[in-house]
Specification:
Blueprint: H1 7-27, H2 32-36, H3 46-61, H4 88-106, E1 117-120, E2 123-126, H5 127-153, H6 167-179
Antiparallel strand pairs: 1-2
Length: about 180
């Protein structure tokens, strides 16, 4: 990882890493049945959400500064259809590759790159706007992934944040950690 001096980009990269980790910690708690389960006929499974995010990342971050973020080879609608090739292992590999493209595209950027223009679906955006767009998009889907995993695990769910009733203890520990 390159040490980025742009405070916004440093923060955005930290947030992307947190969302990636959050989704992975949620998915690690579920079995394959839950990975592919849907709540109803119109809902997406965790597998579909991760396949979609991987496809989005592959399209958005490949040649980020030089080509439209909606690549001709994306076939977005296929991201919402699971095939026999969509094993959990294959989806997780595509997920990891997508995040690799994101970090490879963003880590080397400088302050001056933040106002450069890129396109997504023929819409002109600054790099900063494009990063915000994707950060909110991924946060939206990671929230869905966490909700579905938590729903599937029921009482066996291990929280990814402060447990219910644990705010005071957490705040006290944070104060101790800051004083050390």
């Amino acid at each position: 990882m390159t040490a980025n001096v742009n405070p916004y980009l440093t923060s955005a990269l930290d947030q992307f890493r947190k969302y990636k980790t959050m989704a992975e910690r949620a998915v690690a708690q579920i079995d394959d049945d839950a990975f592919y389960a849907t709540l109803d006929a119109e809902a997406n499974s965790i597998a579909v959400l991760m396949k979609h995010m991987a496809g989005n990342m592959r399209s958005r971050w490949r040649d980020f500064l030089t080509s439209d973020g909606e690549k001709a080879d994306r076939l977005r609608d296929n991201e919402f259809i699971l095939t026999d090739d969509d094993s959990r292992t294959a989806i997780m590999a595509a997920w990891e590759a997508g995040w690799g493209l994101l970090f490879a595209a963003l880590e080397p950027l400088s302050d001056s790159d933040m106002t450069r223009e890129v396109t997504i679906r023929h819409e002109t955006l600054t790099v900063l706007e494009a990063v915000n767009r994707q950060l909110t998009h991924y946060a939206y889907h990671v929230g869905q992934i966490v909700l579905l995993a938590k729903h599937a695990q029921g009482p066996g769910w291990r929280t990814l944040s402060i447990p219910r009733g644990g705010s005071d203890a957490y705040n006290q520990q944070m104060a101790v950690d800051r004083d050390v």
